[in-house]
Each structure stands twice: as structure tokens, then as C-alpha cells.
Amino acid sequence: MKAFTYERAHSAQQAARAAQQHPQAKFIAGGTNLLDLMKHQIETPTHLIDVNHIGLDQIEKTPDGGLRIGALVRNTDLASHPEVRKNYPVLSRALLAGASAQLRNKATTAGNLLQRTRCPYFYDTTKPCNKRKPGSGCAAIGGYERNLAILGTSEACIATHPSDMAVAMRVLDATVQTVAPDGARRSLALAQLHRLPGQTPQLETNLKAGELITSVTLPKPLGGRQTYSKVRDRASYAFAAVSMAAIQMPDGRFRFAFGGLAPKPWRVEAAESQSQPPAVAEVVLAGARSSSQTDYKKTLTARLIASALKGGNPL
Amino acid sequence: MKFTAPAEHNPIDQLKVVGHPHDRIDGRAKVTGTAAYAYERHQVAPQAAYGYMLGSAIAVGKITRLDTSQAEKAPGVLGVVTYKNAGRLKKSKSHASRLLAGPNVEHFDQAVALVVAETFEQAREGAKRLHIEYTSWPGRFDLAAEKVRAVPPKSNPMSGPPDTRVGDFESGFAQSPVQVDSTYTTPDQSHMMMEPHASIAAWHGDQLLVWTSNQMIAWAVRDLSETLSISPQKIHVSSPFIGGGFGGKLWIRADAVLAALGARLVKRPVKVALARHQIPNNTTHRPATIQRVRLGASKDGHIQAIAHDTTSGNLNGFREERAGSQSRLLYAGPNRLITHRLATLDLPEGNAMRAPGEAVGHLASEVALDELAVQLKMDPVELRLLNDIQFDPEKGPQRPFSSRKLKECLSEGARRFGWERRHPQPGQVREGNWLIGHGVASALRNSPTLESAARVRINSSGQLTVETDMTDIGTGSYTILAQTAAEMLGVPLHHVTVKLAESHFPVSCGSGGQFGGNSSCSGVYAACLRLRNALAHKAGWDVETTTFSDGHMSSAGQTRSLGEVAGPKGLSAQDKIEFGDSQKKWVQASFGAHFVELGVHRISGETRVRRLLGVFACGRILNPKTARSQLLGAMAMGLGAALMEGLAVDTRYGNFVNHDLAEYHVPVHADIPHTEVVILEELDDKSSPLKAKGVGELGICGLGAAIANAIYNATGVRLRDYPFTPDRLLSQLPPV
Ligand SMILES: Cc1cc2nc3c(=O)[nH]c(=O)nc-3n(C[C@H](O)[C@H](O)[C@H](O)COP(=O)(O)OP(=O)(O)OC[C@H]3O[C@@H](n4cnc5c(N)ncnc54)[C@H](O)[C@@H]3O)c2cc1C
Ligand code: SF4
User: Are A155 and A141 in contact (CB under 8 A)?
Assistant: First the structure.
């Protein structure tokens, strides 16, 4: 771990200002991802801005009937919030399918969105990795790729975004609110938060340096039948091989978003106008690039879709 | 004492203390955090500096540049150990490769440096500032590809020759009307014990003191002595608490050697713990296997021919995985062929992990038996009962089993499990999206015994102290050794103090190969017999007529307290147990049967176990509570081997990729369903004076095969490549 300085911010403005003064700074929330990365010197911030005391830990109704989730709301609290359980059950289920109880007690809403990939080569500093060291190559391609992405990838990187929560938020059309170091506030669709790797896999989001997430907003409840199906190698405490957030809307139409397939929560709205399972799967998986190790992800995705469309509760 | 004839009635048979489910006597210390593990023994070396090990970034090749100057200048850094300043290090016979690389590198993450600093963080940061360049050479990392070059390995004293042949397998097999010929693969596995390898070392003049986490104290002294070329008398090893080992701590590793070298360099005690991610590649692992099993049977189910051919690989051709061990002994059959082949690989060292040989051997042989049952259209329990045998099938009736209750385990298990309700046709039972299946497998684990010594002292208040270099790796050694001594001298359990794992104590068998409990308690038994003699002698009584109970000894109508007889100076006795040729005369093994109910998800291919039952017969149970924990834990580990455990080899770089507990999956609570452990009563008078056998490794044997067999019963899909993650099943499941 590189030596770093530390400060505790007491408001979002203060955190943003601190980020302005320290261009090499990182925000730290639950620390469940950042600290691991710092120990391996994959992240080497010179300054940490602790955002755990800036408030933003409330869940409130918005005037138009949606829900605003503070950036510092812990995963456990979000999953168990009565409003979420009642009106956004897919989100509650996705959260509970993630990590372990101990981790969820620490993990925050913003930290979860911005957690980095679990690609094992990203964590092994003896191997080339374009995300860790731009231009060094990608050790994962042609190596142990079984858990990596098949959609939205590039020759430079095939890492997945590992979050379960984000997949549910994507299917719910969530938006993300931020404040920049200069104090400017903006809101962007969750779909716009994460970037695809292209030639610059080190750039994972469209946030600017020092831009702080303050909240995530869910539109008003969609109703319908909501499920989160997470396929994994053990019953708990494992990242998704493939996960699917599915909503059968009151009008009978479906919405799907997927985890474990891509560098961001994967949703292809065009697929949702199809009604036959193979057609939906085909549109979702259009452009998929898989290897003998990851071919199964296509099969699995198609099976999950078919099962949901046939009215089953996939898992 | 020499154990040559079957044990007669002896003080252990009183079962006043032995055989009772006492809580661990070290339990309070452990749950209150006062049991100090190697890295936390601050009181032995309060000034210890911190060492951080850096492993090689390549698998095979050479260090071409080694610049430690930036690291040495880093804040807090006290010194850097590398091959350039370490002095001459030898490779001990216990190790496949050297524990410090340079200039040549033999495997990925082989230690290349130890950075010693005032704090752990400074040491780790120092390690990042080492500048090391390598030239990489091509290596052999793919077992399947190297199989053609595999050779017969050497014989070894514990498991005998690599190949055995009885009758004529080829014609026996050819003439069998029913045949199975299947090949199975098992991956490399990591021990992933809770406590990583850790050591503190200090030099007192020319004496080396090592506080470490090690299963075999005398071997640790021997291997440190060989590696560092120091006389064993100058080496002192201490390891009273061990947070799990599973065989990964049978031999010292780089942490101990580097701590010693670091302490010599900076003239201060040094502590070193491996980081979690260093464990799979820097230390040892269970090697992967390719196993071909052929079974030939008559139409009525009698096995006529058994062949089990195993190929494994290892660094520098070090040692093979004896996966055919159980196939030598489990079932009858006149024509038999068991072979082992060893390929040379440049992966890290493969070595013993819980039930080496049998644990992965059953994953093939007990699935092959299920395949035979399917072909015969015979119930798999019945097939196993039919082919039971009460003597060594290779050596004949002149070498009977010391005890063998496999049939009883199978029958009792079938009854308790409700086996008769299992649907014999695969793919017939469905609950919602779950395809339900049931499976069975036998379990056999050899039960070796090893020489083991102990010293027992009694003081004037009748308190006993047991001293032996035996270890407790979380198994319960402290407790069963105390129970043995309490029984032998007739004192309450809380009057016994057990001191373990110091190299100046009498040399025990250590913990491994499931010989620890039986052998070390027999050592304490022998020492206690001596102490009884000494007490009787001091009292002037005939030991044959003296009884020991309630803290007193009585003979011919007289009774005296033990403390009074021991006198103000106390009394002490030491002895060891030697097992002579008892293992030659009798085959010694413990037995069991596993029954599994599971569901395979019809859509996702996920397998989730619902119900596990293990019925075991493993001699006298010294403590039902600790024995049950061993069996239960081993069953959980067997479940992991079947469904999720496996090191992923990157054959380009020559390393194990999934090197931490987030990526190397072991079962979590949610994976372990209702598990029932049943232990049948059994006394084995030919195994030891305790009449006990090995317990610790039995439970892992066969459980994974029962899972494979249950998956077949659930789906009709026969899986032969472990572990059975969803992707292995998916393509063979019916469409949604
Ligand atoms: C073993 C293990 C298993 C796991 N399993 C799963 C799983 O199955 N599914 C799953 O979804 N997740 C899983 N996780 C990941 C876990 O959900 C994340 O680590 C966690 O959500 C991160 O939240 P945090 O608050 O601790 O983030 P931190 O580690 O504090 O921060 C993560 C990143 O977010 C940035 N950040 C934090 N807050 C803000 C903010 N307000 N504005 C801008 N940037 C910010 C930080 O600078 C940092 O870059 C697992 C983690 C571990 C260690
Ligand atoms: S897939 Fe991406 S994160 Fe993984 S090694 Fe390649 S570049 Fe790095």
C-alpha cells in the first residue's frame, strides 16, 4: 500500500472541494473494494476523502412518486427498506444476491456502482492488463476467461462489471445524480454511467475526475412481476456467471437486464418488443463474442429468457 | 512399548473419560482470542520486524537483474533477503524445489525476496520497489499434454509400489459380459486453510528459534536443518496452535526459512505471513489427476476385473497422487491392475492434501461403480454389498482387515436415508424447477499408524502434565490426549494439562494422514503405563493388582492419593508406541458410506445439495464430538471438491489464476444442507491399544462421488470432469 493522506468530509460540497484540491484523491465509502485494490497497489491514491460522514444516507420519496436513494445508503439498508421491498422487489433481490451479509453492511450504493471488475488478471500485477496498465495487453483473452464478458467487449478488454445491484437499477431505468468538484450538479441515466472498454478500458465511467455521486433515483414503481435470477457456482457469496433482472409489466410486456455478460449492466431495449424466446435471446446476444469457456453464457442467457417468458420464476 | 499382538482389555476400556463428548479443552482459549497463533505470538518476540515475501513473476527461467536499492531506501525497510545474500541454501528432501529462488526460478510465485521493515505496510511497499527482471523459458503446464511423457514413480514406504497386478486383468476384463471403461479428471486443489502459513524466527547466538504453524514438528526441525545446514540441536520449533493445515503445513515452507534468514540479516526477530493470494502458487496443492477406471463384471454383478490407472504431474517429477489406493482394497475381484504415472510439470509443488490419493481416487472409482450398477440394472447399494470382501484382495485371506464394517455402513445408511424410496430410473423426480436425485458411494481411507512418544508428569497434588510434540490443527488433539491420560491414571479431565508442539518435547507422529489421533493417544497410553508402573513401584505395590481411579490408587485393600505417592518432587515417565509389523499383518482402514439427495436446476444447471448422510465405522471413537466435527468438515470439503473447488491453470503463464477466497470457491454455509453423521460402534484391537482408527480424512472420501451419482440419478447426465459447475451440465439438459 502506498502511503496516503486522509481527510473526512462532512458534506457533499466539502468532499467535492477536497477532490478539487487533490487531483489524485479517491473517495472512500465502505472501502470493501477500494482497500483491496490499494493493498495490491492497483489503485494508488495519494489522498483519501472519506465520504461516510456526509449524510446522504436516506431513502426518500420523490415528488413524482419515485425513490431517491442516498449515495451512502448501505446495501443491507436498501435491500430491507419497506418501500424497496414492496415496490422495487427486483432491486431488493439483486442486492441480497450479492456478496455476503458482512460486505452488504459496509457496501454503499455509490461504491457498489463504481466497484471495479473481478477479472483475476486485473488483480495479478505480474500479468499484463490494459485496464490496470493501459497499453500493456490483456492477459485474460486466451487465458482463464470463464467468468468474463461476451458482450460489449473489445480486443483490449473482456472484463465484466460485477455488480448485481446495478443490473436491477438498469432494468428500473434509474438515474444517477452527481456533484462535480466545481460544484456543478447533474443527473445522468444509469445506462450512461458506465462505458464500454473500446481502446481505453481504464476509463470505466463517464464521471469526471472528482465527480461525486450523491444519489440514485428510481422512477415511480413499475409494478408487475419482478424477479432476479443469479446463476453462480455456489449457493451464496459468488459473483454471477449470468444474472437476469426481469420485470413482467402489468401490460404483459417484459423488460430484461443482465449481469455477468458485459462491462456494464446489459440491457437491449429492442429485445423487449420481441415475444418469442429465441428472438429475444438473439437480440440480447447480438454481437456476442465468446470462447469455448464462455459459450455457456449464451446458452444460459437464452434459457433464463425462455423460462421467464414462459411465465416461470427462473430461479 | 511395542504393539505386536491385538490389544487386550486395558484401562482405556473403562471409558470413564475416553469416549465421552467433552468440549475441547482449548475451546475457551480459542474463542476468547487467548490462543495465540504463530503470527500473533507477540510475547515471544515483542520487537519482531515484519517480512513481506515477494514471489517470482514468472514460472520457469532466470533472474537477470535484481536491484534492491530502491527497496532498501524505502521508509522503514531494514533489509532485503535474496539469493545473493542468503548464503548457501539446500533443498531438503521434503521439498520439490528450493524455498528461495535465484538465479534460476522453478515455479510461479517461488519466493525471490523477503523485504524486512518496521511495519507490515512498509515491508509490502518495499517489495513493490524491488526491481527484478527475468528471462522466461518455456514450461510444461498442461497435464493432459504431458500425459504421454508420464513415467512410473518410485515406491514409497507408506503406500507401497506404484503398480500392482493380480491375476490377469486384460483377459478378465475382456471376458466380462458387463464392462465400464471411463475416464475422469480432477483439478488441482488448494488447501485454503483459515490461517495462512506464518512464522516468527529469532536467533539466540547460534540457536534458531522458530514459532510457526506446522503439523509435523520433528520434520520441521529436520527440514530447517537440511535447508540451512545447521545442526538440528540448534533449532527450536514451536507450534501450539494451528489454524488448519489439511496437509499444507506438513512441511515447512518459505515463511519459516525466510523469517530465519531475515532475522539473521537484520539481527532482530522477524515475522512472516503469506498473503492469501500467495498460498496457491507459493506453497503446495493437491495435484490434478486423469484417471481411467475399467470394471468388468459377471451378469449377476460379481466384479471380475478392476483396473485403475492414474496420471498426475508434479514439479521436478516430485511425487505422484496415489488415486488408486482405495481401488486396491474396496471390492473383491480376481483380476486387478492398479497403476500410477507421473508427468513432470513446471507448476508449483503438488503434495498431500486431506486424504491424499483416496480423496480424488474415489471421485473416479466410486462413480465407475455407479456406472456398473446402471449397466447391470442393479441397485448400487446392493452391488457394493455383493462385492464386499473381508481381506486384502491383492494379498489374499492371510491378510485380513483389522476391522471392516463397510457393509454395515451401507445397510444402516440405506435404512436411515430411506434409500428404498429412491427412483432407480434417472430423471424421474421433479419438484418445481428442480430435478431431484439420490446417490450413494462407499468410503475407504487407509488408517496408518506411526511411532509416537510422550512424557507424562504427575505432581504432588495429583495433577498430570502431558508433553509431546504432537500438534492440534483444529482437530481436537489437546482434548483426546487429555482424555487418554485422565483415563489411564484415573484422574478427572481438568487435572490434566496438555502441552504440545515444542521441538524439545518427545517426538510424536504429528498430524497427518489421519494417523494423528490414534497414534499420538497410543503414545500417551504407553507413557501412562510407565507412570502407573513408577507410581506402583514407589508405593511398593504390584502394578498388576493396582487400580487407578478418582485421583487415587488402590491395591490389596489400601488406598493412597496419587499426589501423595508422587511426592513433593513428582514423578515423570516417558515412552513411545511402536507398531511393528501390525500394518503388514492386517490391512487397516476406516470405512463409511455416503448418501446424498440433491437438486439440479432444470434451467440453470446449478446443483444444490439438500441432504447428506454419512455413516462411518472407524474404530473406537475417543471423543464423539470432535470425531463428528472431523467427519462433518470432511464431508463439506468433499462437497466442495465435487461442485466447485478447482485451481484454474493458465497454461501460458504457468500459474494458478484463481488464487484467493473470492475466486477459489469452497462451500459456504448456504451450500451445506442438513448433514447427518452417524458413527457405528466398532473396536479395532489390532490397530492400537486405544482400539481406534483414523477419523480425520475418511469423510472426504466418496462424498463427491455420491454427488456425481446423484446428479446422474437426477438428470441422466453422467459427469466425469470435476468440479460440476453449472456450465458442465447446461448443454446436456433438456430445452426449457
Ligand atoms: C469477496 C467479495 C464478494 C463480493 N460479491 C459481490 C456480489 O456477488 N455481487 C456484487 O454486486 N458485489 C459483490 N461484491 C462487491 C461489493 O458489492 C462492493 O465491494 C461494494 O458494493 C463496494 O461498495 P463500497 O461502499 O465498499 O465501495 P468502496 O470500496 O468504498 O468504493 C468503491 C469505489 O467507488 C468510489 N466511490 C465510493 N463512493 C463514491 C461516491 N459517493 N461518489 C463517487 N465515487 C465513490 C470509490 O472511490 C471507489 O473507487 C463483493 C465484494 C467482495 C470483496
Ligand atoms: S479483461 Fe480487462 S481487466 Fe482483465 S486482464 Fe484484460 S484488460 Fe485487464
Answer: yes
Burial class (CB in 10 A: 0-12, 13-18, 19+), B656: buried
- Interface check B222 vs A, CB under 8 A: no
pLDDT at A312 over 90: no
Cross-chain residue pair B653–A143, CB shorter than 8 Å: yes
Residue nearest to atom 37 of ligand 1 (CA): A111
Q: Between chains, do A235 and B604 touch, taking CB under 8 Å as contact?
A: no
Does residue A114's CB lie within 6 angstroms of at least one atom of ligand 2? no
DSSP string, B270-309: EEEE--GGGHHHHS-BBPPEEEEEEEEE-TTS-EEEEEEE
pLDDT exceeds cutoff 80 at A315: no
* Parallel, antiparallel or unpaired: strands B207-212 and B235-238: parallel
Q: Which ligand is nearest to the CA of A160?
A: 2
Annotation: CATH topology of B149-188+286-447+585-730: Aldehyde Oxidoreductase; domain 4 (3.30.365)
**Cβ of A131 less than 6 Å from ligand 2:** yes
The CATH code belonging to domain B11-35+450-578 is 3.30.365.10
Quote ipTM for the complex.
0.96
Q: What is the pLDDT of residue A314?
A: 59
Name the DSSP letter for residue B555: E
Mean pLDDT of A77-91: 98
Cα–Cα distance measured from residue B518 to residue B522, given in angstroms and rounded to the nearest whole number = 6
CB pairs under 8 A between A and B: 106
Q: Do domains B44-138+197-273 and B149-188+286-447+585-730 have the same CATH topology?
A: yes
Per-residue pLDDT at B159: 83
Instruction: Give the Cα separation of B175 and B178 in Å (integer).
Output: 9
Spans in chain B with pLDDT lower than 70: none
Q: What is the pLDDT of residues B111-147, one digit of tens each?
A: 999 999 999 999 999 999 999 999 999 999 999 999 9
What is the Cα–Cα distance from A239 to A117, expressed in whole angstroms? 11
In the DSSP assignment, the letter for residue B660 is S
Amino acid A313: pLDDT:
62
Query: Do B247 and B106 meet the contact criterion of CB atoms below 8 Å apart?
Result: no
Catalytic member of B195, B320, B487, B697: B697
- CA angle, corner A290, sides to A285 and A291, nearest 5? 160
> Of the residues A158, A204, A239, which should be mutated to test ligand 2's pocket, given the most ligand atoms within 8 Å of the CB?
A158
| CA B86 to ligand 2 centroid distance, Å | 37
Alpha helices, H only, B275-394: 279-282, 358-376, 380-386
> Is B655:B108 a contact under the CB 8 Å cutoff?
yes
pLDDT tens per residue, range B254-273 = 999 999 999 999 999 999 99
Is B697 one of the annotated active-site residues of the chain? Answer: yes
Domain segments of chain B: what residues? 11-35+450-578, 44-138+197-273, 149-188+286-447+585-730
One-letter identity of residue B246: F
User: Cα(A56) to centroid of ligand 1, in Å?
Assistant: 17
Q: List the CATH code of the domain at B44-138+197-273.
A: 3.30.365.10
Give mean pLDDT, residues A231-245: 97
Label residue A16 exposed, middle or buried (CB < 10 Å: 0-12, 13-18, 19+).
Answer: buried
Record: contact B643-A306, CB cut-off 8 A: no
Nine cell digits for residue B590: 476406516
